[in-house]
Design a protein that fits this description.
Elements lengths: L10 H5 L12 H6 L13 H13 L4 H14 L1 H10 L1 H8 L3 H7 L1 H4 L6 E3 L7 H6 L8 E5 L16 H14 L6 E6 L6 H5 L13 H18 L4 E4 L4 H11 L5 E3 H21 L8 E4 L3 H16 L4 H7 E5 L2 E2 L18 H7 L7 H8 L3 E4 L9 H10 L4 E4 L11 H6 L6 E4 L6 E3 L2 E3 L2 E2 L6 H11 L6 H18 L13 H18 L8 H11 L10
Parallel strand pairs: 1-3, 2-3, 2-4, 4-5, 6-7, 6-9, 9-10, 10-11, 11-14
Antiparallel strand pairs: 7-8, 12-13
Helix pairs in contact: 3-5, 4-5, 4-7, 5-10, 10-21, 14-15, 14-22, 18-19, 21-23, 22-23, 23-24
Amino acid sequence: MAAIDPHFPTGTALLAQPRLNRDGAFTQTERERLGLAALLPHAVFTIDQQEALETEHLAAKTDPLEKYVGLVALLERNETLFYRVLANNLEALAPIIYTPTVGLACQQYSHIFRRPHGLYLTPDDVGHMVERLCNVADAEVRLIVVTDNERILGLGDQGVGGMAIPVGKLILYAAGAGIHPQHCLPVSLDVGTDNPALLEDPFYLGYRAPRLRGAAYDALVAEFVAAVQHVFPRAVLQWEDFKKGNAFRLLEQYRHTVRSFNDDIQGTAAVTLAGILSGMRITGAKLADQRILFVGAGGAGVGIGGLVRAELLAQGVAAAEVGRKLLFFDSDGLLTAGRAVKDPYKLPFVLTAADAAALQLTADMDLLQLVTAYRPTVLVGTSGQPGVFDAAILTQMAANCPRPIVLPLSNPTSKAECTPAAALTHSDGRALVATGSPFAPVQLGERKFVIGQCNNVFIFPGLGLGLLLSEAARVPDSLFLAAAHAVAEYTQTHHAGEETLYPRIAELRAVSRHVALQVAHAAAAAGVAPVVDEATLLVRAEGWHWTPEYAPIG
């Protein structure tokens, strides 16, 4: 019998380490060798038995937030078992560990907090960022998800509570792409909060000050990025839930020098494009023939528009025509010439006066008037305005074309622009619908419609894995186009239901693998990664593939 590594923890110290602990699955022999004799009840369970028991525990909880707390408690006690339960029940548990329940967890963060996860960096850490990153025990960090907590889902500024988002995203990297948790690091840039409810909460755990702004904020972010490049030079940096102004600015500032991307902008764009491409496969139509109306012109909406434009250009559509195929309607109305536009990231999508005249559109049109006059075939909602796609608008969409695509994408569920039932009812079941949050199937007459979820989880785990496989130095837009096509391709042969725009989340590992391989090839084609043959990529993919099983002790 091999000797135990003298540095391997034993006794209660071992039980306190979630990455090594296996609770009642330690055999009697292991208990003797590891100083665990009498520290556990006598019975020895297999991991399958443990999984069944944890599933029973979760089933007994009726409140989604309580399920979330229970899952996080399991993660903090027995990491391998947590991922085993999650990976084998992903369809049911992804909405708990991430959207929409994670929004509640962010709001209640200080009141449900048990143990820290990752790094919480504040203005007090300026000047010491390298030292703080060196405090991370795992030296092989390859994926970092960072937020400044200012635009959490559709909930706004959640202060330190936003940390639940990077934690959740990295959990999905591990469960959905098989990347070992030791390579993942969540980071909160806790630069204060302008949420008065948090500042007044006596139990608030975050940096209790108004939000850092301006040059001081930029300096903190710059020092953080430099520290990442110094301490974890091979890491991919994912920006998450930054408010739109900072999100676009930081993405543009660092995308050409750092292996980084913004999931809210680029990941959302790729998964939405994937759904539209799936719609084209179902109907036999061409993307070049579509008229797409975006309701909401924030980070998500503009990000989607940018990638759809890139796809249209790649398909050979003339640049002069693209502007007439993508229209934006925001809180101030149609985004068109002659209207004051404060946000610079919106400027590329302003409809020219000539195009507005040719389309017979005016800046003072309301949404129904615009839908009637423009006759969009695809309606994309990222407005955060529940119910804005009302019966009249949905009926008009159904009059515009035989198979309208309706995508109410705002999260959480309460923010959706319409329900799938409404979109299907007002189109006589002809609409192709996908949503940002999970919805139950819709029964319309004798037909049952499974609602696909336009969820970034179909993109970012595979994209991140593809970046690791390819050793890509940068993340150009062509990689997101490749990811979108990969998801659409997979959906065609593995759809969740008849005429559904996305696959089942239960198949996420297979989706992520397909996306990763296509992204790796695209990285080589773009010149940001070495050219590697398929066989080598497959070997690398196997090397990155982690299955949540108890590893041998030695």
